[in-house]
């Protein structure tokens, strides 16, 4: 029985490891940041990569709550509480990556990481605040010793940083006139059109040489 229990525990930990690699990895593959040719500046690409890292960290946070339910053989959490936590975590795993992907795709070629505030606000409420209460209830009320205090610290840091980001964004929106935003978009479109015309002119310049060679 002891050997069977050890094998079962190892299998559950292997499942947790597999999910913690595949779920954030699938999200990063779907984003395909390195394939975005229109993100040319290094600063913008690194800003996007930092935001993607926060999304992957949030997914690991959700998986950690689920792992606390399926890894141990016996927990002090009631069955109805386990069901609610499983349902809540699966809903977040389905919705939040889709929200982040749709927010990135809606930006298009004029992507601006500092303007993407939908996912940070949504994850601030649904992950960073709610999971603190879930872990605190499991630790204090149900005396669960497997609660990850490291992720509680991560949630507190995330709440502080996202709150500061949201405050700075509100100040930037108030102090940043709409004419400057329109001018920035116009400059980006002009630069994009120039690159398109340059590639087309390069193709036209190559066609006469091909005709001469053919003759």
TrEMBL record:
Which key words tag this protein in UniProt? Membrane, Transmembrane, Transmembrane helix
Polar residues compositional bias, start-end:
194-209
| TM segment ranges | 14-32, 85-104, 116-137
Q: For the region Disordered, what residue ranges are annotated?
A: 194-215
What is the top-level taxon of the source organism? Answer: Eukaryota
Q: Which family, according to UniProt?
A: Belongs to the TMEM121 family.
Annotated protein name in UniProt: Transmembrane protein 121-like protein
